Amino acid sequence: MFATRAQPTASVLSNGIQSRNMGTLREIQLRLNSIKNIGKITKSMKMIASTKVNKAQRAMETARVYGASSSSIYKNANTTPLENEEQVYIVSSSDRGLCGGIHSSVAKATRKLMVADGVQSQ
User: Fold this and answer.
1) Distance between terminal CA atoms of the chain?
2) What is the DSSP letter of 100?
3) pLDDT per residue as tens digits for the range 6-64
4) Alpha-carbon gap, residue 103 to 95, rounded angstroms
5) How many Cα atoms within 13 Å fall on the side-chain side of residue 3?
6) DSSP assignments along 10-41, one per residue
């Protein structure tokens, strides 16, 4: 006569609501797609980072060659001290922009060193 258990109706079975906090098939597919997209973005970011690292390494190698050649020039100068012992300051700075206050800092440090040595700047 009367059933002891209630049977779910067709509308409850077809609306796609899952029990026990399980997602529907569509929700799971959306999550998988977003995971794939995140993987693609991560792969792109990794490629960009490796390109930047390679570029920095190439710049470092060229700078290393420049540094070695400039230090060899100073080491092999074969100079003798002058009789009147005048001091010469060789100051170098960057010729590129966007390097902050490096130019003024180099000039300020040079002036400070000259004042400490008792030399008047021209």
Assistant:
1) 115
2) T
3) 555 554 455 555 556 667 888 999 999 999 999 999 999 999 999 999 999 999 998 89
4) 9
5) 4
6) HHHHHS-PPSTTPPPHHHHHHHHHHHHHHHHH
